[in-house]
């Protein structure tokens, strides 16, 4: 018996993998057909990073349970939250206290954490940061595509300000060795860009306030880094 399907709408652990629009919609249909809960992990994708408040909006799906954290407070206070559909809430509540699923955490509903997160959400809305992430993120994505002329830049993935550059030796078709990828990441850091080497990709997640000028700087640093890597390792 399958109780639930759990997924990040845009997975990051294996590199930023943005699925086709119809993929998650089809999963939603299958879950509905077999009465399986759809749980969306938006802890990394959520709160504007992909150009919409939540990544589920991109795919026009409504999960039964939505997980959120990290950007809910912009990292100023450790907080996470769960949103559920009314029918899921009622199932946990039960008709009586005896039948309810009673569970709690020592620090749940922390007043300082909640206050910080509410102010953070207010700022995101007031300064139109989701719209900025969508506009500048699209600009960044287009600029990153200029790197595809390089020997080891194989693909650009992601949405909004959640992006990755897939690295591969296009001459041989082989993936970049892990330690080489780490050295490439370290060189980017030396030049002023914080990113991760995840599986075979350089993953970046700049803040919602990113400007187009700063996006240009990101691409320039990546280009300098990858050109040096080509000359040194390939």
From TrEMBL:
Pfam families: Aminotran_3. Keywords: Pyridoxal phosphate. InterPro entries: Aminotrans_3, PyrdxlP-dep_Trfase, PyrdxlP-dep_Trfase_major, PyrdxlP-dep_Trfase_small. GO terms for molecular function: pyridoxal phosphate binding; transaminase activity. This is Aspartate aminotransferase family protein. Belongs to the class-III pyridoxal-phosphate-dependent aminotransferase family. SUPFAM superfamilies: PLP-dependent transferases.
């Amino acid at each position: 018996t399958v109780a639930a399907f759990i997924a990040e709408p845009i997975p990051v652990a294996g590199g930023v993998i943005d699925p086709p629009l119809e993929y998650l919609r089809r999963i939603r249909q299958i879950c509905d057909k077999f009465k399986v809960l759809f749980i969306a992990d938006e802890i990394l994708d959520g709160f504007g990073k992909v150009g919409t408040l939540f990544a589920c909006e991109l795919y026009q799906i409504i999960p039964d349970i939505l997980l959120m954290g990290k950007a809910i407070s912009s990292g100023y206070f450790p907080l996470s939250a769960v949103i559920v559909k009314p029918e899921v809430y009622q199932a946990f509540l039960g008709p009586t206290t005896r039948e309810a699923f009673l569970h709690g955490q020592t620090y749940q509903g922390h007043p300082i954490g909640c206050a910080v997160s509410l102010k953070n959400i207010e700022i995101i809305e007031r300064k139109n940061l989701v719209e900025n992430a969508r506009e500048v993120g699209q600009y960044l994505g287009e600029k990153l595509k200029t790197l595809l002329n390089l020997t080891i830049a194989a693909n650009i993935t992601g949405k909004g300000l959640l992006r990755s550059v897939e690295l591969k030796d296009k001459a041989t078709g082989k993936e970049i060795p892990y330690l080489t990828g780490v050295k490439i990441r370290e060189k980017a850091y030396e030049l002023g860009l914080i990113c991760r080497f995840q599986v075979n990709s350089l993953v970046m997640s700049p803040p919602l306030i990113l400007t187009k000028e700063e996006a240009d700087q990101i691409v320039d640093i990546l280009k300098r880094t990858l050109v040096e890597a080509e000359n040194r390792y390939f």
